[in-house]
Amino acid sequence: MIPRSRLLLGATFVALAAALACSDMVSPTRGTRYDWRLIVDYDSAGPRLDTLSFHWPRNRLPVRIWVEDSLELPSRVREGIALWKGALLYGEWDGVLVSDSATADVIVRLTQPPPQIPIRLAGRVLSCSGATDVDTVGTRFELAVPVRAYIFPTIPGAADLTQCLRTVAAHELGHTLGLFQHSSDSLDLMFSEPTARFLTERDVGTITNAYHFTADMFPVGP
Amino acid sequence: MRILPTTLALALVLPAALAGQARYGLTLGATGGTRLVTDRIFQDIEITQGLAPTVTLSASLPVSERERGGIEVALGFGKTRIKESGFPTVDGPDFKTLSITGGVQGPIISTLGWRFGAGLLKYLPEKEGIFRSGGPLLLILSGGADYRLPIRGPVGVVARLRYDYQRFNTDELQSSGFGRTQDVHRLGLGLGIEYQRP
Lengths: 222, 198
Ligand SMILES: [Zn+2]
Known about the structure:
The complex is a heterodimer.
Chain A: H1 4-20, E1 38-43, E2 48-52, E3 63-67, H2 73-87, E4 95-97, E5 106-109, E6 120-124, E7 128-133, E8 142-144, E9 147-153, H3 161-177, H4 201-210, E10 218-220
Parallel strand pairs in A: 3-4, 3-5, 5-9, 8-10
Antiparallel strand pairs in A: 1-2, 6-7, 7-9
Helix pairs in contact in A: 2-3
Chain B: H1 3-18, E1 23-33, E2 37-41, E3 43-49, E4 52-62, E5 68-78, E6 80-84, E7 90-91, E8 95-109, E9 112-123, E10 138-152, E11 155-168, H2 171-175, E12 182-196
Antiparallel strand pairs in B: 1-4, 1-12, 2-3, 3-6, 4-5, 5-8, 6-7, 8-9, 9-10, 10-11, 11-12
The complex binds zinc ion.
């Protein structure tokens, strides 16, 4: 027979566990966002628009990024990778620098972009600028890889050049992640003329939504 | 990480100081548990935990004719999976837990014994993901059974079954806006050796 003291101890334990066991975690609201999707004409015969979402599929991670080794641009891009990676709670995106551009998913060059291609997301800050080209390969559902981004000083030797490159690198990286529109809020990193040093709540909300929204476009290429 | 060697040293030194009839144990085992996180971003997301290899150190002293009081320090190495409707299930972040419980144990029948305890558990900081900044000190309640088989003199083999309950949260989840906590129930099985000072 089990002594009363032990029964009492067991009963106390069960009662405590039962009293505490009543809680489930509550998800945060992530309503704060801007539209990130790419809007394309898909029929030249009429004004027809298609709004398309993109994110890197999990099986393509980490995204391989080649960066031109000049003006410490690799360090700026590394900081951008950490910024975006840190915004995503579930490892939805990851990036790694590679040494051969032939094997890259994203190529970041320190130069002005070549003549206009169909879809270019360009931004400008005081002492440097950037642009990311989005090539949909003639079908709306395929994104040509490598995605190319361009970052270049507009005032060489400017005092704030390092910070400018940091901001623009993170901004262009945001485009390569799938944020294909600009925010209308000047405080956001994805504003067309960004000055933000960090991601705002709206930037975080937008990238989180983008990586859990069903993708319409898929990366195609090497 | 200073908390780990300090706790382990305490676990070993304190009972040693108290000497007589102290019983020490070392077990290796695995601990599984219920889901850690539920979330919803367009669709439901769940982080589940896999079996975590666990090493447990224990020490106890007699507190009455039949019961003993003691502590157990456990270090677990866990892995997670992230399940999201419409997306492939992928590996989530790894984690480490360190727990210390004080408890009472006694015999049920023959070489089978019971244990009830309460203590603290901490998710240690990792590089990234929901465990990036570790977690707050969580209260755990534990209960279980031990099966002892003497081998030679003061040395014996012990098999341990442990259940514990915690209200899970991490600093990263809190700063991301998650409210309340998640009930987590864990069950572990371990096998090891015990030494009892005569
Ligand atoms: Zn832009």
